[in-house]
Write a structure and sequence with these properties.
heterodimer, A: alpha+beta, 60s Ribosomal Protein L30, Chain: A, Phosphoribosyl-aminoimidazole Synthetase, Chain A, domain 2, 3 domains, 7-stranded mixed β-sheet, 14 strands, 23% strand, B: alpha/beta, Rossmann fold, 5-stranded parallel β-sheet, 4-stranded parallel β-sheet, 11 strands
Chain lengths: 364, 368
């Protein structure tokens, strides 16, 4: 990582760095500059101005940089489409593997648009020459089991093999489609002042477990990734009350998700840090590594804005579902400090910054 | 409150009580007070727990030269880069890896093919030397007394012949004197770093307190430790007394770790040296004594500092003023614009102990 980032200081030409893949501001500005304006017919003209709605324009398209796109079909239905490529090191980690991650990730992206009953997933494998077939088999079995858990079928796919060293082990792309019948999609930009913010469970487990495994830190206690499909409890939450905005706090963790939600909705967010669920093992490992569990990925969690009158009902609905028992109301949206997130630490208050670049363990 | 009272170091209720006490003390003192701490870990605790939002109006707590990586001078980085480019394996702490030199960081050197290894301790660097008996292994050693003592212990214990140390170790007390004397820095008291004091002992500060007539309180790193240290300093300021106090007795003694100190001073001696962006500070650099010259990289290699000027952006970097307590990171034009952790201009944005990095991470001034 350091090599890539440092060489770009010498080169006059900008190059892609790992910071562009970390899900923060660097990635967003690259997408806004390079990608969004070039794909026309998505609600954004190539010059960035608004285009007329010709009926085929997606209700949620590329410019929104949401978890997926929503295309109108029929009279009041909509098709939700999303895609995600999965790379993870190590391929098998405490609490999961790349296969489970690939299925849960795409199911969760659909769920974040309000589509909790996915129709189908695709599975595209890129395999490195020399990868043991037993590894591939384990990954496929894990994908099948996770798809069953999420109640979705994997109905088409593709496989490529690349030479030794040309790709790192196994890369999986999954795309997903779901039909939304009449329900409005949920965006990540819909927060209103006064909305309650709910997180569905302990934060930072995936990121801290992976960093620990990757760095070979041998922490006692049970650090495990939380990777899991969330469509079950998200569906229950949507039945229980009005969800105004929703996001799965993956790369960049809760800190990134909240900042993005505040920025997109032009509201402020106040968070009570002591109410954010964090497991003891993750908290202590994070402290040792010098990494804030709020700034690393979750793969089976959701943060949602909820109409304050429905907050209790939604919370209870989530808590009654598998994967949601530790859900908490952690704060609310406000009219103050718009676009920013303020955390009450229990001692004082500070801004919650958006993490930049990949979290690295403290060394010195 | 006596400072050896048993405390729950993360008890928010106690923080509220201390914050109230700070209000009262500041009302009694009735003029602005600026305190300086000299440790990145103090700044982390202050920023991470939002303690600055608890400070009453008129009370400012600033970080001074408390980040060893940040005060490492560019020519020192250049020396490490030069040694790496001459074919040695250079081992260093991770925080040092990406600190820009005049032309290159060690990370750049590695990208260009040099052997640079990140290690977690001096002993890991020695292991590298044992693994590569046919190569020169250089430990680019940075840090204050807390890391200088372990480096000394390694040198005093017959390391492999192919091992040497490029010392950029620093000694804090003389830097505090220089900052205390700076005409445009008006410090009313110091919160001294508990980590370093576990080695040096707090007795070391006695002459300083006498000479500069400023109170010093040695503080720990939990939120209550920090608030307590600030409270004790205000008590001295209110009483107009230049006292010395140990508010971290669970780790720090007056004498310190005498064995570690003895080893440290048997291997290192002090010399005058430039602290990046701050000043030439007499007696604040730790260099290897003649008795250990065989393990001194500067004796074994011909290390010329790099030629040519630094990146023009570096001229705008105000790291030096920040470390001298003259400015806050958000007063720098580059902060969070051209200078970010992903693309740092100054060392303060590289190290996890650096003020700019910490402010970037925890959101800077609580201006909500």
């Amino acid at each position: 990582m350091a090599e890539n980032q440092s060489t770009d200081m010498d080169d006059s030409e900008d190059v892609v760095t790992l910071a562009h893949g970390a899900g923060g501001g660097a990635m967003r500005s690259m997408l806004q500059d390079l990608v969004v304006p070039r794909f026309a017919g998505n609600g954004a003209a190539t010059d960035g101005t608004e285009v007329a709605d010709d009926g085929d324009t997606p209700r949620v398209g590329l410019p929104e940089l949401d978890d997926g796109a929503v295309h109108p079909v029929g009279d009041d239905g909509a098709l939700v489409v999303t895609t995600d490529s999965h790379v993870v090191k190590p391929l098998f980690f405490p609490g999961g593997d790349i296969g489970r991650l690939a299925v849960a990730g795409t199911v969760n992206d659909l769920a974040m648009m309000g589509a909790t009953e996915p129709t189908a997933l695709t599975c595209s494998l890129v395999l490195e020459e020399g990868t043991p077939t037993s590894d591939v088999q384990r990954v496929i079995e894990s994908m099948a089991a996770t798809a069953e858990e999420a109640d979705v079928s994997i109905s088409t796919g593709d496989t490529k093999v690349m030479g030794n060293g040309d790709v790192d082990g196994i890369v999986i792309n999954t795309a997903g489609v779901a039909y939304l019948d009449g329900n409005a999609p949920v965006s990540d930009a819909g927060l209103d002042p006064g909305d309650a913010l709910i997180v569905s469970g302990p934060m930072g487990d995936h990121g801290i477990a992976l960093l620990s495994a990757r760095e070979g830190f041998d922490f006692t206690g049970d650090l495990e990734s939380d990777v899991a499909p969330v469509n079950g409890f998200v569906g229950a939450a949507m039945d229980a009350g009005r969800i105004t905005a929703m996001k799965d706090p993956t790369r960049g963790g809760l800190a990134n998700a909240l900042n993005e939600m505040a920025e997109k909705a032009d509201v402020g967010i106040d968070i009570d840090e002591q109410r954010i669920p964090i497991s003891g093992a993750t908290a202590s490992a994070g402290e040792v590594l010098g990494i804030d569990p709020l700034s690393v990925a979750n793969e089976g969690k959701v943060v949602m804005g909820v109409d304050q009158n429905d907050a209790k009902a939604v919370l209870e609905a989530i808590q009654a579902c598998p994967g949601g028992k530790d859900a908490e109301i952690v704060g609310q949206a406000s009219e103050d400090h718009t676009g920013r997130v303020v955390v009450d630490t229990g001692f004082g208050r500070r801004y919650l910054s958006e993490p930049e670049g990949e979290a690295l363990p403290r060394i010195c | 409150m006596s400072s050896d009272q048993t405390l729950q170091f993360r008890n928010p209720d106690q923080a509220d009580q201390l914050a109230e006490r700070l209000e009262t003390l500041m009302a009694d003192i009735d003029e602005p007070v600026t305190l300086m701490h000299v440790c990145g870990s103090h700044e982390q605790a202050i920023a991470k727990f939002g303690l600055r939002s608890l400070l009453p109006d008129g009370l400012s707590v600033r970080m001074g030269p408390g980040c060893p990586v940040c005060v490492t001078n560019m020519p020192e980085v250049d020396e490490a880069v030069a040694v790496a480019e001459q074919g040695a394996i250079v081992a260093t702490y991770g925080d040092m890896f990406r600190v820009p030199g005049t032309q290159k960081s060690l990370a750049d050197a590695r990208a260009d093919g040099a052997d640079v290894e990140v290690v977690y301790s001096a002993s890991e660097a020695v292991e590298l030397a044992a693994e590569h008996p046919d190569r020169e292994v250089v430990f680019f050693a940075t840090g204050f007394e807390t890391t200088a003592a372990p480096t000394a212990a390694i040198l005093a214990n017959d390391p492999p012949e192919n091992f040497s140390v490029l010392s950029a170790h620093k000694y804090v007390p003389p830097a505090m004197e220089v900052v205390a004397e700076m005409p445009d820095v008006d410090i009313d008291g110091f919160l001294a770093a508990g980590h370093a004091a576990t080695i040096t002992g707090y007795g070391l500060f006695e002459p300083f307190v006498e000479e500069f007539e400023l109170p010093i309180v040695v503080g720990g790193f939990e939120p209550i430790d920090v608030l307590l240290g600030v409270e004790r300093l205000l008590e001295y300021i209110k009483a107009d007394v230049a006292g010395l106090e140990n508010a971290y007795p669970r780790c720090v003694s007056k004498e310190g770790n005498e064995q570690a100190l003895e080893t440290m001073w048997s291997v290192f001696e002090t010399t005058s040296g430039e602290w990046r962006g701050i000043a030439e500070i007499p007696g604040a650099n730790l260099v290897i004594r003649d008795e250990y010259a065989a393990y001194d990289t500067r004796e074994r290699f011909d290390v010329e500092p790099a030629s040519g000027g630094p990146d023009p952006l570096t001229e705008q970097c105000i790291c030096g003023d920040i470390m001298a307590g003259k400015a806050d990171p958000d007063e720098c034009e580059l902060f969070d614009e051209e200078c970010t952790p992903g693309n740092p201009v100054g060392a303060c944005m590289v190290s996890s102990e650096g003020t700019c990095k910490i402010w970037h991470e925890y959101g800077g001034h609580p201006d909500f």
